[in-house]
Design a protein that fits this description.
The protein is an alpha/beta fold. It has 13 helices and twelve strands. Helix 3 runs parallel beside helix 4. It holds the Pfam family Radical_SAM.
């Protein structure tokens, strides 16, 4: 049958061509229309098949729409890697001395604002080291006055902050977070926070007073490690009364504080999950405590380095994207490794503007 069908079709086609020219044209027009309709239907069917996927159980699933671009709601900008402390577990070490020119940094911050940024956190290194805090102050003022960001914050070890800085820039700053890992000065020295005759704990108390005087929300960050995991900080934290006490589990990052190319060897500082949980249990009465285990911390931060590249930590190291100054925010953020669900789960979105915080100044 399959042999005769082509022969019959060929015979019919031959008889068509034996007709006069006018009859030939009338015969070919319906044929062309049929062929066109047939190929259009085949193409439509093929496109529909491409939209059908198979699930794990073999059932058909409709293809999902492409994911929406990530919004950089809260960004941590480590504009310098230089620091005057030598914390043994530091995860952002002094591998370069580069700092962007001020106007280029402002251009990048404007790009982030246009992409949806609501909160900027300046960190380091030690952010007050550059130009004695003037570089930082100008960025803080720019973000609050010109970009009108709801929240501008800083993380610092506090050793270089002077009251004059608060006088010049305090009104533009929402939150100042001071790193304090122990209320025992000997432990601070062991960790690497010692600086000659200066007392880290006494300086912390002075900064707390300045934050109250100049209406800046005060926050404390602590990294829980082998040297402070047994400490009870309840009374000291309650006395300082920060708006938040961020408690981090010591985290290893290849190329920063562990591995061949690292400037630190943080393995001796690491604690286990159970030890971290015991520390949290000991401080359960501290209402402002916000815990962050290694699992919560690793992928839930949008981190920009000194070149304004997003740093992807998903593989246990910091893999940089291209700079937002070169390719824009939407393109660069695709390579950030950011886990927005974990960001929300760890409490990354909170009342972060001092205008909305009910504080007793």
């Amino acid at each position: 049958m399959w042999v005769l069908t082509p022969a019959a079709f060929a015979g019919k086609l031959l008889s068509v061509f034996r007709q006069p020219l006018s009859s030939l044209w009338r015969s070919l027009v319906p044929l062309f229309c049929w062929l066109r309709a047939t190929f259009w239907l085949l193409a439509t069917k093929r496109r529909k098949q491409q939209l059908v996927l198979r699930g794990p159980d073999g059932t058909k699933e409709e293809e999902e729409d492409p994911p929406l671009p990530t919004t950089p709601t809260s960004v941590n900008y480590h504009f310098t890697r230089q620091c005057n402390y030598k914390c043994g577990f530091c995860f952002h070490t002094a591998k370069t001395s580069f700092v962007l020119p001020l106007e280029e940094a402002k251009r990048g911050l404007l790009l982030l604002k246009e992409a949806g940024m609501e909160k900027i956190n300046f960190s380091g290194g030690e952010p007050f080291l550059q130009d004695r805090g003037e570089y930082l102050g100008k960025l803080v003022r720019f973000c609050k006055v010109e970009l009108r960001l709801p929240s501008v914050s800083i993380v610092s070890n506090g050793s270089l902050i002077r009251e004059r800085w608060f006088q010049n820039y305090g009104e533009y700053l929402d939150i100042l977070a001071i790193s304090c890992d122990s209320f025992d000065e000997e432990v601070n020295v062991l960790i690497g926070r010692g600086q000659g005759k200066k007392n880290h704990v006494e300086n912390l108390q002075k900064l707390r007073r300045w934050c109250r005087d100049y209406r800046v929300a005060f926050k404390i960050n602590s990294v829980i490690n082998r040297f402070n995991v047994e400490e009870d900080m309840t009374e000291q934290i309650k006395a300082l009364n920060p708006v938040r006490w961020k408690v981090f589990q010591c985290l290893l990052i290849e190329g920063e504080n562990c591995g061949e190319d690292a400037l630190r060897e943080a393995e001796r500082f690491v604690i286990g999950d159970e030890e971290f949980e015991r520390f949290l249990e000991r401080h359960k009465e501290v209402s402002c405590l916000v815990p962050e285990s290694n699992q919560k911390m690793k992928d839930s931060y949008l981190i920009l380095d000194e070149y304004m590249r997003f740093l992807n930590c998903r593989k246990g190291r910091k893999d940089p994207s291209k700079s937002i100054l070169d390719v824009g925010v939407e393109e660069a953020i695709k390579f950030s490794g950011f886990d927005e669900k974990m960001f929300l789960k760890r409490g990354g979105k909170y009342i972060w503007s001092k205008a909305d915080l009910k504080l007793d100044w």
